[in-house]
User: What shape does this take?
Amino acid sequence: MPGSSAARTTDVVVVGGGVIGLAIAWQAALRGLTVTVLDPAPGRGASHAAAGMLAPVTEVHYGEERLLRLNLASAQRYPTFAAELTEATGRDVGYRQTGTLAVATDADDRAVLADLHRFQLSLGLTVELLTSREARRLEPMLAPGIRSGLLVAGDHQVDNRLLATALLAAAVAVGVDVRTDRAAGIVTTAERATGVRLGDGDTLAAGTVVLAAGCWSPQVAGVPTDVVPPTRPVKGQIVRLRGPAGFLGRNVRAVVGGTHLYLVPRADGEIVIGATAEEQGYDVTVRAGGVYELLRDAHTLVPGIAELELTETYAGLRPGSPDNAPMIGRTALAGLVAATGHYRNGILLTPATADAVADLLATGVEPEVIRPFSPQRFARERVWSMRVTA
Assistant: This one.
């Protein structure tokens, strides 16, 4: 996508160095573009706080059928994406095709799970309804009171922290300039984004700016009000435990007393438990109550976790959007592309987002797969709302 500034120093500057921003930078560089990434702490933020579940089927929600299609496409891309990343860096990203088991702990939660099963079948998804005994045969550490289960063999996992580290290495290896500078604002010239103003006052000129700063995207100055991505921070607290390898064999999701919970086991015995969903602004304080609730519900589901080592508590901020779907593609400001608002699907959607945005940057053509998630859809809704009100 050619820029209008003759003084530009890079084809693309990516604001945000989480897994989305790093993957876009890597793929754009592979397509022959010069790329700079700006992030004070690349690979941290929401990418560091996630659990790494790749679960488009068990996480499907009513009214999100278009998002499901994008999630499934990205999940199908993951095996080759992970293999390419490992080949490029020599780093394992913890991609495991272990499947996901969703279970219910009481009669009410069993009804919720049965309703989810009917919805999944109506969408043509592959899922197997299990009895309590069948679920416990797959995962012997589950509590005896488990009422039922849903097995989704196609929902897998990746180690999000290994993924971020590998993406950073891959980007640097293909010439991406990863700078730990803060993006203070977008520079515009003649109603076009032409670069980024840095925290020290310097300006980095670019042909295209990609805004991939997660929930911090609205905090980047210089973007016209009607173009600012409507993302918000949704706090999630997680707990990490250490146990013997094989303590759990696959991802376990549950509804415990109406509250959603997941346990993601790593190959080395680590178990990630999460995650709360709290509308607390930009607060990342780990609260005792959140940790207690996670451990309490996980203990109800898997009593044996009480014997495991507690290794970490952590809180991160997911980038939520008004419709829980990402904003990917051109914005209404020429020269500015958005890749933000991925909410609970950031790790899952990394391959699909990176491929699509890199293709857009290299060819100027917006791939069909991301068109339903145009950042401009909210601006259109605001205009329509104003007309109706008038």
